[in-house]
Please model this.
Amino acid sequence: MIGIVGYGSYIPLYRIKTEEIARVWKRNPDDVIQNSMMEEKSLPAIDEDTATMAVESSINALKRAKINPKDIGAIYCGSETHAYAVKPDISLIGEAIGAAPNFTGADLEFACKAGTAAMQACMGFVKADYAKYGLAVGSDTARYNLENVTDHNMGAGAASFIIGKKENEILAEIEGTFSYTTDTPDFWRREGEKYPKHTERFTGKPAYFKHTIAATQNLMENLGLKPSDIDHAIFHTPNGKFVIKAAKFLGFKKEVIKSGFIVNKVGNVFSAATLLGLSATLDKAKPGERILMTSFGSGAGSDSFSIKVTDKIKDKVNLAKTTQEYLNNKKYVDYATYCKFTGRLK
Amino acid sequence: MKAAVIGYAQTKFKEHWDKGLRELISEAGNNALKSSNLKAEDIDNLICANTLAPLVNGQSNVNALCFEELGIKSSVSINCGDVSGSAAIRQAMFEICSGKSKIVMVLGVEKMTDLLSSQITSAVSMLLDHEWEVFNGATLASMYAMLTRIYMKKFKVKPEQIAKVSVKNHKNAVNNKFAQFPFEINVDSVIKGPSVDSPLKVLNCAAVCDGAAAIILCEESLAKKYTEKPVYLIGSGAGSDYLALHDREDFLEMKATKTAAEEAYKQAKIKPSDVSLAEVHDSFSISEILAVEDLGFAKKGSGFKFIEDGKTDLTGKLPINPSGGLKACGHPFAATGIRQAIEITMQLKDEAGKRQIKNAKIGLTHNLSGTGSTAIVNIFSR
Amino acid sequence: MAWRRIKQRNCLIGSECNECKTLFYPPKLKCKKCSSSNLSEFKFSGKGSIVSFSEIRNPLYGFEKQTPYTIAIVKLEEGPMLTTQIVDFDKIEIGTKVESCLRVMHTEGHSGMIQYGTKFKPAE
Model:
């Protein structure tokens, strides 16, 4: 048995409303909301980055896992916005949470799916008995050219999962995982460039939907699952609409995406997006329920997971701040402050 | 044995755009020699006080510049923050009283205005604990701002009352031609003036400036040879405390000042009430208020009242900072302690002109480093 | 070199006197109370309250972009005091309860090191 023994979210305090961004670029906010479903998004404080947010969510995961941090033998952190280009975030995370020095790990990048890739890496380590526990983190301060409408979607946040295999500690069992990867350049950021670029409509069907659906269907087939077996589903959320479309195509009930649907309030948090959705879902899920999670990373690939919630969940949710509590605790900023906090002022 | 002050000189304290360390040293040092009719070869040793030259001017070994400009055959440098000037005087006392030297020049120099504002803020914040205060963003002014806030809350003090310190010191400076700001201000201009680190206002703070000051000391038996009215250094005390404010036992009592004062009073065989005037370290208004209390002039928590009531005015019972203090004279770090000693010397020799205090017999200087990690108190008499 | 203090700064590791049990943060090499040199590491909870604070408008070199920022002396629940920054607040006063968080202290230009450290925000 392998599964999640602790999980945690982190969303910064600050938000900017879609209307405020639309005001500056003279867009009709209703058009933006209609296209992307984005109402507001989170942004980091001026002194927050991928590493500091990852520490916050990992501390929350540790609070729920109640394990000795020294037993964490592997830490993987997925992000598109690592604090350094060269110098790992995981060394800072491991030291800050008390796991150092006896652990391995690396900073991962696979566009928006490096967080779930981190989870798979931890599963491998723990299953092979190379580590008692593994810590998987997705953390990002997503950003895009300010003038591009995509900037409306760029959020900040982190989610952490501690993977273990002791049955009496597992709050959600990972029943299986399946990945689907092809060389599909729909979105990228070149070395030394500040912002990524995407291929507009090409990011949809041949990229997001193709990979998301293939990974999910393969996993369900392998595990013999029908759409009706799924109580909660989480897909990557570059915007609000894609996930609804994906769930519908797969034949899932409309409500299954509800628990993990936070993109309209935080934005697309890249590598943290799917994981934050899972964290939010675990806050609400009941023992025995099955969660299906499929990430998508441009370039392109998807990792799909089937996760079954155990009885343990009841004792764990309240040990740390829930995703909803983070969503509720917010302070709106104006566009100038947004630019200042995200380092856009020269 | 005692040491006596037989000569003194200072440059004006201001932004000396056209002068560097060399010019400042030359002006103060040569004029000090002139004031006592001494030649360079009469001086056994020079103690140079400087704090920021290694950072601001890229210059260490400032005492070697003194040799170049003044020709005094031997010299050393001393740096323990903005108390360095007073520390140099204290070292000169040891040197003379031990019999090692007969005549010593003490020269403090600082050239601070060649940096941009955030650079000089970083430079002066070197006086704090770098690892545990400055690393986290603390500046020298912000530490005094926090002290001010604690004092105001604990003793229920209004900003108007704190402002009185600057108002008094500016008034005193009007007749000091060497002061950076020789003009009057009022309470309104302080509290309605620009804000710096809250709750401080610009006029609660001494300013960065350039300047040099020098005095010449000799053993007491020789003093009359060089001046009709020598002034004697009759007591000196030094005190230390933790570098970081957060490590101190009591924020509102500067232990370093108390330790230094106790030692100085003991050596001088006087009580605080015997002091006729004092030059104290008012780098920020709160530091003058705390000094007045910790030197034993007023009870803890009543220093602000003591000043507000006019007791420390030029005409008051105990004039404090008749020169204008650090606030109005300017605070070129290592030159300040020596500038304070010059003021006391002038007052005790009846040479202070329009700001002369009548019957001044005993004068005290109080000088701090940083937020009070080092304090030196020197006591002089006629 | 800021490196040697990383653990002490980022994890609030101070020291405890093994003789008289007094706690210290920042860590000390010698007990302030009984002068013993027999101290061991002690991890602080990160909860405390504000003793004093100041909003800095004249920043240090390298802190210009985050100005104004708020410096404070915080008294930890366990007793010791430290100098830190307060973030994510609307209003604070002397006595406000705060808790620790890891943040960027400053960055050495575009290509230099990122220096992290512990700041505090109002406690939940």
